[in-house]
């Protein structure tokens, strides 16, 4: 009488089941790699366009680049929503940054913006479009040599 080789079958089954597990682990590791870019391309381009209109003598925005660091979610002053990857915080405030220039209308495309902090810089004009951010919960323009704000900007509080 020949006994069935249960041990051999079990080892073969374990070997075949291990391959998909190794493959799944490899895929999970690949997806969680640190070089994974979270930043939405359209919002990255908006930020780069915005930067072009600025004067940044202290190089505060040196991480905002089109080549070496394409993930705008890791740029100085930028925070992205962990779920949607939309830019939700643009925080360029702080003592002695002295960023100035034009707060360009391209920022209007950052529709998920919740925090906008330009405090402690050299902006001289509050653009009218500041009032169009529907999700904005915090706006700081203090310590800037601002002229009188327009009515539209004054309604965002």
Automatic annotation (TrEMBL):
Its main location: membrane. It is found in: Membrane. Transmembrane segments: none annotated. GO terms for cellular component: membrane. Pfam families: LRRNT_2. SUPFAM superfamilies: L domain-like (SSF52058). Residues 41-81 form the Leucine-rich repeat-containing N-terminal plant-type domain. It is a single-pass type I membrane protein. The keyword Transmembrane applies. Gene3D superfamilies: Ribonuclease Inhibitor. Keywords: Glycoprotein, Leucine-rich repeat, Membrane, Receptor, Repeat, Signal, Transmembrane, Transmembrane helix. InterPro entries: LRR_dom_sf, LRR_N_plant-typ, RLP23-like. This is Leucine-rich repeat-containing N-terminal plant-type domain-containing protein. It comes from Morus notabilis.
